[in-house]
Amino acid sequence: MNRLAGCALALLLAAPCLAGDASGFDPAAIDRCLADASTQGTRADCAATGMEACLDYARGKYTGDDPDFPMANCLDASHQAWEAKLTGVYEAALKAQGKKDNGAQEMLRQAERSWLQFREDLCNQVRDAAAEGKGDLARARCIRDETARQVALLMALVDPR
To answer: What would the pLDDT profile of 4-44 be if each residue is shown by its tens digit?
Structure first.
């Protein structure tokens, strides 16, 4: 199994694969993007935040023969950062919904379970529709992007500006 296929499998299992290999990815970039959007009263699309710096770093350090490795590496690092952000925002949203005492927490739990299945199904379709040899990258990008969107949606439950 090549390294990119191993990464795709790790993403499928939601386990870190390459996180940390591309130390050019700065998870704080996500916080800055979200904070900037919040101060402007908007919800920005921050999914790709930090990717340019990560790719510059990864391309400078990687000397192998897989041209997709830097992108796979950075997508994985970005995805891991978004997953961590999602966990924190989801917990905050559960807490906020718990104050309503009307079954809102259970509805949110069910919605999150449904969303996880939706994300998997959608991103598997994206992988299957991608150009030959690019399916794993397309799926990884989809997982990252959908996770970032879910963070923004859940943030609205915590801070409904």
So the answer is: 434 433 333 333 344 444 457 999 999 999 988 877 666 66
CATH code that applies to domain 3-7+25-158: 1.20.1270.180
Among 64, 68, 33, 70, which residue's Cα sits nearest to residue 48?
Answer: 33
68 contacts 4 by C-beta, under 8 angstroms: yes
Q: Return the amino acid letter for 138.
A: A
Phi, psi of 152 (to 5 degrees): -60, -40
Q: What are the sequence ranges of the domains in the chain?
A: 3-7+25-158
161, 120, 141, 130: which is closest to 13 by C-alpha? 120
Distance between CA atoms of 148 and 161, rounded to whole angstroms?
18
Q: At residue 50, what are phi and psi to the nearest 5 degrees?
A: 90, -10
pTM, entire model: 0.80
